[in-house]
Write a structure and sequence with these properties.
With 387 residues, the protein is of the alpha/beta class. It folds into 4 domains: 131 residues, P-loop containing nucleotide triphosphate hydrolases (Rossmann fold); 62 residues, Helicase, Ruva Protein, domain 3 (Orthogonal Bundle); 90 residues, Up-down Bundle (Zinc Finger, Delta Prime, domain 3), CATH 1.20.272; 39 residues, no CATH class. It is 51% helix and 9% strand. The protein is built from 19 helices and 7 strands. The strands form 2 sheets. Strands 2-3-4-1-5 form a 5-stranded parallel β-sheet, with helices on both faces. It has a two-stranded parallel sheet with strand order 6-7. α4 links the parallel β2 and β3. α10 runs parallel beside α12, α15 packs antiparallel against α16 and α15 runs parallel beside α17. It is globular and about 75 Å long.
Length: 387
């Protein structure tokens, strides 16, 4: 059985590790922890929660830490592991490093069973999660662990990994195919290397082209230059379709962006803005929905978060629209620019000292006052029209 390219290229040490420069590298926290543990003969290394999107190095870092500390290492996925599977290992005399991927999928009772062994130092636990550990990991376990946030890989980091893959496969790649794979991987090194490996298996040619890359992703070519006119045309059409309440058009343009590999967070950000700008007070829950879609995209990523985007986009499209708050705010902005810093009426000024009170600050203020609180120069202005 051939080893997948992603596993073949998996770094065995921190020197070869790509990405997470805020955690890994000379003088960075993971290197410091490993050095300190070695000096203490492996007894002081803390349990860790790695929080970050898929394919950014969580498993690889766990394996490297175990190797550096020469600890007995066991790797599990919470999807198909019971707490008793880990309990069996703890009966051995060895100190263990247990890596539990997708720890957020374990319930409170399962996570609770790890606590005594983490507290005693019998195991060093490294949990990996794509979800915010504040919500997905029980507080006692969280308080006994260090939480490290891993970031999506940058274009430069993905390029370095792609080049390593090409060298291993003894292939070259055309520029447009390179860009297509880099963009479609969405910051995930595993997706990138898997796509590259499949593309290489589809042809005997030394140089891979765009058709190989597209076939590997089972996608056809889409006209979507992230820096060109079509990019702006599609995002404009998406927003205007939501504004017009045309849900079919909304979902079509959303699909165009997703299938072209557009960053889901970019789409979700536009939806958050739309929720306040165009829906506003007509349906305030739209902002809640849009923010939850953004969070889902942050924690889940492609391909699953495409469904979250579709759900949110359909909801926003069908919502009632009201731009009154948006229009009123920018009318107020116009007056700020036109008149500058007009004096605040004295009766609504803060009066924290006796002197300020003696000067009349706050005098005459009453709750639910009907008199305008606007500066005198514009006290009769009406920005907001609530119908």
């Amino acid at each position: 059985m051939n080893t997948p390219l992603a596993d073949t290229l998996r770094p065995k040490n921190l020197k070869d590790f790509v990405g997470q420069s805020h955690l890994v590298g000379k003088g960075k926290i993971i290197n410091q922890l490993i050095l300190a543990a070695k000096q203490a003969h492996g007894q002081e290394f803390p349990s860790i929660i790695f929080w970050g999107p898929p394919g950014v190095g969580k498993t690889t870092l766990a394996r490297i830490i175990a190797s550096e500390l020469k600890l007995e290492y066991h790797e599990f996925s919470a999807v198909n592991t019971l707490s008793k599977d880990i309990q069996k290992l703890i009966s051995t005399p060895s100190r263990l490093l247990i890596f539990l991927d997708e720890i957020h999928r374990w319930n409170k009772a399962q996570q609770d069973k790890l606590l005594p062994h983490v507290e005693s130092g019998k195991i060093i636990l490294i949990g990996a999660t794509t979800e915010n550990p504040s919500f997905s990991v029980i507080a006692p376990l969280l308080s006994r662990s260090r939480v490290f946030t891993l970031k999506q890989l940058s274009a430069a980091e993905l390029t370095e990994i792609l080049d390593r893959g090409l060298k291993k496969l003894k292939r070259k790649i055309k520029k447009n195919a390179r860009e297509f794979i880099l963009e479609s991987s969405n910051g995930d090194a595993r997706i990138l290397l898997t796509t590259l490996e499949i593309a290489a298996s589809l042809t005997d040619k030394t140089i891979l082209d765009i058709s190989n890359a597209e076939a590997a992703l089972q996608r056809r070519a889409l006209s979507f230059d992230k820096h060109g006119e079509e990019f702006y045309n599609v995002i404009s059409a998406f927003i205007k379709s939501m504004r017009a309440g045309q849900v079919d058009a909304t979902l079509y343009y959303l699909a165009r962006m997703i299938e072209a590999g557009q960053d889901p967070l970019y789409i979700a950000r536009r939806m958050v803005v739309f929720a306040s700008e165009d829906i506003g007070l007509a349906q305030p829950t739209a902002l809640v929905v849009a923010n939850e879609v953004f969070r889902a995209c942050e924690t889940i990523g492609y391909p699953e978060c495409a469904i979250n985007l579709a759900h949110g986009a359909a909801y926003l499209t069908n919502a009632k629209k009201d731009r009154s708050a948006y229009n009123a705010y920018f009318a107020a902005v116009d007056d700020v620019h036109k008149f500058g810093n007009l004096p605040v009426p004295i009766k609504i000024r803060n009066a924290p000292t006796k002197f300020m009170k003696s000067e009349g600050y706050g005098k005459g203020y009453q709750k639910y006052d009907k008199e305008s609180y606007l500066p005198d120069k514009i006290k009769n202005k009406k920005y907001f029209n609530n119908g």
